[in-house]
């Protein structure tokens, strides 16, 4: 190789309790492999056994022994000669220093040998190695949830001393406060006498919060014979990295005492630490401590000194307001921990009194009625009548707002967010929203309806509400851009013309009891789950991915879906197995293009479906990761067209496999944006090759060809676009967000300069962007599903139109959780009361799409099975959610 790295032979270093740390030797390979990939080993801990192949392990071990490789390993050996731990590390060049840097890649101690200082001694050895190898910097990474490792690394690797202290509070008590649902008790005093400090670390812009126990005279003597320094550290001091995840904040308790509080990220829902400050501590000290926390968070995020900015306004984003926090579904409670809900959910929604949130009131009214949805009757029941309660919209600061309703017996405090599923219905002068709470009985998902006396009152509320919703989703002031009309239209019920033609082409729905095909079982050796689905155009085949296998399914003469075969052990040309992603059928369904970004984000693979193996590997680019790809036109896969349209997170390009070397066509068709934060992630094409592009920021761009600027740019509603589809003629665009869909008419309306043209080829007038139609479940139906799913957050799978060369797009299909959902476009555009149908399964629906050429047959990949169902077997939601 031409470069000889420093010798890996150095003196043994002894540990207490007979443990020795030494460089790894060739004879150590079996024991090292056991700790590396064996049961209960390092790779299993990181849930990565499917990623580390024997070839990777063998190559890694060989590098440890190669003097020309800058990769090293040391092992911890007990007094019997058994290897009980290891540390793998490497050195590399550093553009910020002349000296090399040392990176601790892996550290592991067997479970039976932990808590005896072995891990600490391995780290001490690594520090000695850094000195010996003349490395300027040592660093590492570990899971944020791995709290013990955080403590261990923080103490030794970051390294602090009392001279690093930047702020302190001299006296207080440390408590662990648990949620009411915890079986461990409500509150535990960890230290009866302690002091809090904020300390610098040897890593720039990283700080830690230290809570240190104060011993009374003689008290420390009881602990001097502890076996483990780690155990003693857990008794004498708690150390936490100052990071946004902890939500550290200064608060005032009900008894008037002051406290520093932060989340216990390793505890149960609602668990938190509280450092309750003694009364004699001056208020100015507490304020200074809190301000220092915000400065530390600023420096950590922006990796620059706050002294260079010295603007208190820059700290506002780090001021955490626990009263204004929306409890996310994932945080509420794991499904397995929940007991069955009581049948009387109406009582569950009788909220307990809570303190009013503090902030500026943006809207207030007592001239409304409040109704609560009752699933037993399927209706909204009057809960509070005017003027017995007040409705407010309150500004909590830092782009957070809350809807607060308070009466004598009812308090509702709901942070404005997309999870509310807010819906305005002008026909009934009502506003409907969902509220999620958690108590001893579990999660309560309630759907509320606010009834306004007249149109003007409702319009006034809607204007204020949508302005605040826009600000919280987009983190900027309402009215600063020209996007507010687009945003308002997306949350309003507005009928769109040209819907009758769509509705007339739909088949009449019936309430027949046709259940469709039963699920098709696909048996595999491992306990793997289905992950994706693609439906053929040229051939009657559907393909489902499960691990490194692809199942092939087809419809028989009787119209039943059957399992045909499985393509097993999907591997690249070097024999490395991987799980296929982003399946795209190609060249009359003879081939399939697949990828795996974690495997190689700059490569695509061409699989011959007749042979069931990958026959070509395409290196698309040396330095541009491929985010997604699509046919050059909607029905290109029905032809022998070889090229594809691809996107990176910042550009669009043609992929041509006929090129030698890399396959990205670097000519005038390559559109790379100068701005670097576009977050492009999904695309679709029309039959003429027009391109619709959706981003992680939520905006949508329409192009008539590659290499040109977008003719139309539709602003974000605040949520990422996770899927996009277009009708074959480009008239209709369907975008999928996590909790709703957007249906957009791309035809430029009358009265505009380019009337009758499409937004792909011509510009809309500046103030007349198309009206987005926001498709979501009714709030009361969503609340039902959330309750049923134990509070697990629901997310739509990418939605699709029915499509075919000779068929018109009339229906939309998607799924969320255990439900498949179809929307009638005719009913949506005519603003019909019940535009969607649903069907429930016993498994989660992973992906779904219409059979090519049909608007009736839907093919679905469930977690374990594959199924085809007639849309006629889907039911009116009022008959399902009851």
From TrEMBL:
Signal peptide: none annotated. It comes from the Eukaryota. SUPFAM superfamilies: Acyl-CoA N-acyltransferases (Nat), WD40 repeat-like. Residues 503-516 have a biased composition (Acidic residues). GO terms for cellular component: cytoplasm; nucleus. Residues 19-181 form the N-acetyltransferase domain. Residues 499-526 are annotated as: Disordered. GO terms for molecular function: acyltransferase activity, transferring groups other than amino-acyl groups. This is VID27 cytoplasmic family protein. It comes from Candida albicans (Yeast).
């Amino acid at each position: 190789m031409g470069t000889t790295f420093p010798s890996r032979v150095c003196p043994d270093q002894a540990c207490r309790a007979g443990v020795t740390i030494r460089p790894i030797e060739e004879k150590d390979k079996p024991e090292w492999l056991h700790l590396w990939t064996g049961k209960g080993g390092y790779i299993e801990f990181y849930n990565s056994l499917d990623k580390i192949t024997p070839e990777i392990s063998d190559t890694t071990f060989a590098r440890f022994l190669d003097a020309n490789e800058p990769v090293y390993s040391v092992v911890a050996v007990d007094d019997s000669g058994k290897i009980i731990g290891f540390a793998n590390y490497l050195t590399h060049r550093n553009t910020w220093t002349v000296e090399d840097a040392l990176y601790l890649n892996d550290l592991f101690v067997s479970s039976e040998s932990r808590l005896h200082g072995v891990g600490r001694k391995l780290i001490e050895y690594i520090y000695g190695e850094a000195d010996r190898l003349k490395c300027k910097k040592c660093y590492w990474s570990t899971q944020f949830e791995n709290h013990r490792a955080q403590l261990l690394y923080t103490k030794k690797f970051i390294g602090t001393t009392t001279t690093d202290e930047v702020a302190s509070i001299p006296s207080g008590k440390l408590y662990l406060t648990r949620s009411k649902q915890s079986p461990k008790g409500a509150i535990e005093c960890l230290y009866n006498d302690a002091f809090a400090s904020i300390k610098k670390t040897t890593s720039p812009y990283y700080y830690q919060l230290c809570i240190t126990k104060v011993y009374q005279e003689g008290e420390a003597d009881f602990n001097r014979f502890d076996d483990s320094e780690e155990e003693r550290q857990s008794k004498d001091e708690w150390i936490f990295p100052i990071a946004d995840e902890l939500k550290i904040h200064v608060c005032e308790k009900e008894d008037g005492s002051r406290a520093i509080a932060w989340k216990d990220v390793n505890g149960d829902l609602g668990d938190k630490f509280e450092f309750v400050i003694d009364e004699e501590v001056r208020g100015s000290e507490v304020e200074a401590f809190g301000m220092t926390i915000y400065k530390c968070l600023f420096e950590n995020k922006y990796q620059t000194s706050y002294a260079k900015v010295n603007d208190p306004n820059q700290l506002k984003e780090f001021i955490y307001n626990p009263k204004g926090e929306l409890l996310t579904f994932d945080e509420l409670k794991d499904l397995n921990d929940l007991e069955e809900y009581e049948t009387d959910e109406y009582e569950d929604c009788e909220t307990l009194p809570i303190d009013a949130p503090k902030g500026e009131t943006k809207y207030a009214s007592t001239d409304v009625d409040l109704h609560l949805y009752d699933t037993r009757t399927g209706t909204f029941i009057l809960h509070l009548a005017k003027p017995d309660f007040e409705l407010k919209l309150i500004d909590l600061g830092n782009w957070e707002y809350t809807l607060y309703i308070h009466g004598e017996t009812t308090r509702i405090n709901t942070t404005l967010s997309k999870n509310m599923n807010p819906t305005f219905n002008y026909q009934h002068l009502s506003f409907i929203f969902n509220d999620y709470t958690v108590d001893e009985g579990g999660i309560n998902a309630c759907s509320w309806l606010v009834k306004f006396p007249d149109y003007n009152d409702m319009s006034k509320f809607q204007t204020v509400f949508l302005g605040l919703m826009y600000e919280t989703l987009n983190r900027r002031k309402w009215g600063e851009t020209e996007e507010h009309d687009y945003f308002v239209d997306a949350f309003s019920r507005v009928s769109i013309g040209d819907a009758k033609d769509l509705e007339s082409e739909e088949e009449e729905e019936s309430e027949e009891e046709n259940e469709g095909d039963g699920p098709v079982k696909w048996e595999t050796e491992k306990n793997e789950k289905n992950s994706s689905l693609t439906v053929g155009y040229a051939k009657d085949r559907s393909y489902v991915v499960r691990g490194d296998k692809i199942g092939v399914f087809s419809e028989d003469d009787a119209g039943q879906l059957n399992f045909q075969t499985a393509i097993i052990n999907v591997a690249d040309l070097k024999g490395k197995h991987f799980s296929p992603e982003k399946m795209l059928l190609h060249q009359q369904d003879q081939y399939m293009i697949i990828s795996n970004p974690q495997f190689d984000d700059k490569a695509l693979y061409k699989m011959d479906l007749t042979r069931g193996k990958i026959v070509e590997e395409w290196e698309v680019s040396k330095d541009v990761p491929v985010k997604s790809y699509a046919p050059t036109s909607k029905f290109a896969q029905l032809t022998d067209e070889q090229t594809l349209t691809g996107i990176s997170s910042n550009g669009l390009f043609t992929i041509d496999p006929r090129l030698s070397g890399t396959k990205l066509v670097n000519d005038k068709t390559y559109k790379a944006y100068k701005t670097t934060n576009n977050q492009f992630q999904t695309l679709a094409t029309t039959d003429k090759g027009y391109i619709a592009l959706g981003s992680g920021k939520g905006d949508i761009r329409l192009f008539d060809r590659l290499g040109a600027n977008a003719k139309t740019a539709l602003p974000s509603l605040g949520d990422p676009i996770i899927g996009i589809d277009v009708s074959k003629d480009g008239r209709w665009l369907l975008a999928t967000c996590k909790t709703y869909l957007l249906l957009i008419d791309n035809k430029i309306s009358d009265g505009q300069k380019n009337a009758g043209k499409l937004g792909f080829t011509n510009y809309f007038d500046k103030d007349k962007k198309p009206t987005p139609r926001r498709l979501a479940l009714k709030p009361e139906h969503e609340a039902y599903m959330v309750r049923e799913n134990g509070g697990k957050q629901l997310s739509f799978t990418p939605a699709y139109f029915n499509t075919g060369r000779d068929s018109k797009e009339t229906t939309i299909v998607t799924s969320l959780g255990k439900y498949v959902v179809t929307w009638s476009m005719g009913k949506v555009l005519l603003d019909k009361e019940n535009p969607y149908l649903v069907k429930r399964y016993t498994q989660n629906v992973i992906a779904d799409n219409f059979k090519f050429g049909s608007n009736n047959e839907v093919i679905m990949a469930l977690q374990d099975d594959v199924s085809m169902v007639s849309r006629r077997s889907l039911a009116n939601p009022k008959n399902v959610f009851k």
